[in-house]
Specification:
By secondary structure, this protein is α/β, with parallel strands linked by helices. It is about 50% helix and about 15% strand.
Length: about 280
């Protein structure tokens, strides 16, 4: 079956829907808890997860690099889980991590703002005014996260294959729509062809993690493209040392079959010795 990604608004009732859909399909659910369970294997601490998960950048250069490194590690967890198949990716910008993967069934769960506030207040046993503030903040953070990192409006319905309004539809109907939709013949036919592309995305993500963790590379101004395991590096670096570091990082990733180096050295920075 296809990969399912589910985007949701806080208080929309997405949690019980996604759990029931996963159970009925026999799918593995990739959510916050699943990511926490394996985070340590990817160099992620609980504190790092709290700082970066589904939040926009801090706009502090060194901090943002650490945030981006952590975010890429979370994305690697999601991609490697997706490669195993039969998964529901809940949040985490799941559909945006899978460009070119046309076997993805993209679902969004929504509800009117005041309905979501009421649900959240009841669920958390909190004052409605506090719930209203938390729901609004969550909407802003998630919208900012998707816009900044993926340049997409998360409310645009054309970005989804199915949009479910839980103010009008029951959980049972929502689950039925998801489980029926993912069995669509068009999605099934694309699954095999998309597996190779997903492997390339994993290689690309591993190289991104390596370069963000590499202190030899000061700024990240080059692109990584992968096709059938072959890596092409384009863009610019500041020195021959940075070029060599970028090549080292790419060569260190298992599955890379070759590298095309199209990096340009732009040494416009002033050398302190010149002053």
């Amino acid at each position: 079956m296809a990969i399912i990604t589910i985007s949701r608004e806080m208080g929309s009732g997405g949690i019980p829907i996604v759990h029931q859909a996963a159970e009925e399909l026999g799918y593995t659910l990739i959510d916050e808890e699943a990511i926490k369970d394996v985070a340590g294997k990817y160099g992620l601490t609980y504190e790092a997860l709290q700082q970066i998960d589904e939040k926009p950048p801090a706009f502090v250069e060194q901090l943002d690099r650490q945030i981006e490194l952590g975010m890429n590690r979370i994305q690697l967890i999601v991609l490697e889980a997706a490669l195993k198949g039969n998964v529901i990716i809940y949040g985490r910008g799941g559909q945006d991590l899978l460009p070119g993967i046309t076997s993805v069934f993209r679902v969004r769960v929504i509800a009117p703002f005041e309905d979501r506030v009421e649900r959240w207040a009841e669920r958390e046993w909190i004052d409605p005014d506090l719930a209203r503030s938390l729901v609004r903040k969550s909407d802003q953070q998630r919208a900012g996260f998707i816009k900044y990192y993926f340049d997409r409006d998360w409310e645009n319905p054309i970005e989804y294959d199915l949009v479910i309004n839980t103010a009008r539809l029951s959980n049972e109907t929502a689950v039925k729509l998801i489980t029926n939709g993912v069995r669509d013949r068009n999605l099934e036919e694309r699954k095999t062809a998309c597996k190779a592309k997903l492997k390339d995305l994993i290689i690309q993500k591993k190289i991104q993690v390596a370069r963000l963790a590499d202190d030899r590379i000061e700024d990240i101004w080059f692109n990584i493209d992968v096709k059938e395991g072959h890596v092409t590096l384009t863009g610019h670096v500041y020195s021959e040392q940075e070029r060599n570091a970028a090549l080292d990082d790419a060569q260190s990733v298992k599955g890379v079959t070759g590298i095309t180096d199209q990096l340009k050295i732009i040494g416009y920075r002033n050398d302190p010795q010149d002053h």
